[in-house]
Specification:
2 copies of one chain form a homodimer. Chain A is an alpha+beta fold and 246 residues long. Chain A is 39% helix and 19% strand. Chain A contains 8 helices and 10 strands. In chain A, α5 packs across α8. The longest helix of chain A has 27 residues. The two termini of chain A are 33 Å apart. The interface between A and B is large, with 50 and 50 residues. Chain A binds a DNA duplex (30 and 30 nucleotides) through α7.
DNA sequence: CGTGTACTTGATTTAAATCAAGTTTGGTGG
DNA sequence: CCACCAAACTTGATTTAAATCAAGTACACG
């Protein structure tokens, strides 16, 4: 059986046994397609199912009173949109498709079954904490990094996350998003994003065209961005044993 | 028995019965004091116990390579520092005391006992989600709001959170932090924080001196900041019943 | 009393926004 | 097949919000 995206992602956080894997692979049914620009979940919605991104790219975002948009997270294959909402009253932000995106509706009882397996439960909790750590990194990005560094850091993050679910080949991955989207992510203007990208290209750190991101100098990009991948807590580097969890 | 801060906070998220309350109130032993500027937990630490803020004010922060600091969250009485770390390998940021702060070391097994009670468990998960929503708001703050709006939003947030644990009287609460701390929070320079504060004072929205914050015009401040308190998910406004949780 | 820390205020510089034209690309229909 | 159009991307000129530089003052504390 081909491993699905969720299984790929979670196995990066905890050792999963065959039974875990089998269970994870049973949930691959009935994906729903969203076109670029469509909302997967709207701000204020009270979704019934939990949503899992299978392919494509989505984002969390908030719309401001003046119509400006601020993106707060990218969702790549293997990410849950709203594990949260099972316990929250309603969404306090929206989820939008940045590209054509396949999303799986996972019934709550399936989630409950998954969480009943200790390894999977542990991996999912870890995934939630990584989401939180990523938000903190974004705050640092917006608060203390220059435009170029901020963009560089975003690309470092995406490269690493994409890699962890096997979507990077030859330091290259699909990223069919407009400069406006990057502006909404970094809090910059489109014009300035354009100039900053030009700078990154001129420095031969990356190539970005036709919806593909090619990292030419990963180390140089990391250095420029001050990127440290430890906050993503990848691979089995954990100091705690699986039995350790509260 | 006097209710402790944790009990006060959690009862805002879920209905707690007498037994829940009793259990929560048993953990009030042996608080540890930290002086202003001391680290409660350092970046990279692997803490054994979970830490609970009882009084004072602490913050999460990251130190940059150039020595700059970015604060990513404020921790007020009733907040946990590192419920996370029980499952994570090590801290990917530090916790520092912004004022003299009393912190309780809660052994993991006590946490486990608390989580075994459904209402408390639900309230704690909700608290975690609120932390995440707050991080998203900060991203919006840094990305899309002006200096004055950003500061205003921070004060709105603090007022609301302080209120929820009973630390606000007459729209006034203790906030003995320097303008440098506000600068490290908002990603601004100290000078600009100073001028922006002056603006907020001149607009008669607040008074801030001698370590006390007095909100003079709560509604005006909310309007300026674009503050909506729904992301804090306070009071029993939940659409889900306690039995609903996954 | 000095001395350091926090706060203020003014002058200057700078990073990024805004304004204003472009070009390039991809799609659509005649 | 080509004319037309709308996005997305570029590039240049100007403005602006905030940073930096530079001096102050007001205290608290030893």
């Amino acid at each position: 059986m081909r491993r699905n995206m969720l299984s790929r992602k979670l196995s990066g956080f905890a050792r999963l046994d065959d039974e875990d894997e089998a269970l994870l692979n049973t949930i691959s049914v009935r994906p729903r397609l969203y076109l670029k620009g469509e909302d997967v979940i709207g701000d204020g919605d009270v979704p019934d199912d939990v949503h899992l991104v299978l392919s494509g790219l989505a984002c969390r975002y908030k719309l401001m009173a003046d119509g400006e948009r601020q993106i707060t997270a990218y969702l790549i294959p293997g990410d849950f949109c709203d594990l949260h909402v099972a316990i929250l009253d309603r969404m306090d932000h929206a989820i939008g498709a940045l590209t054509e995106t396949a999303v799986l509706d996972v019934p709550r009882q399936t989630i409950a079954a998954l969480l009943a397996r200790p390894n999977i439960s542990r991996a999912m909790r870890l995934a939630t904490l990584v989401d939180e750590a990523t938000l903190r990194q974004w705050i640092v990005n917006l608060g203390r990094r220059s435009a170029v560094q901020s963009l560089a850091h975003l690309f470092c993050e995406l490269r690493t996350r994409m890699e962890s679910v096997g979507l990077v080949e030859n330091n290259e991955f699909s990223l069919p998003i407009s400069q406006k989207v990057l502006a909404d992510t970094t809090g910059l203007s489109v014009v300035h994003v354009n100039r900053s990208l030009a700078e990154l290209r001129k420095a031969r750190l990356l190539a970005f065209s036709d919806g593909r991101m090619h990292i030419l100098d990963a180390e140089g990009l990391d250095r420029l961005a001050g990127f440290e991948d430890d906050y993503l807590h990848l691979a089995g580097k954990s100091a705690n044993s699986p039995a350790d969890h509260v």
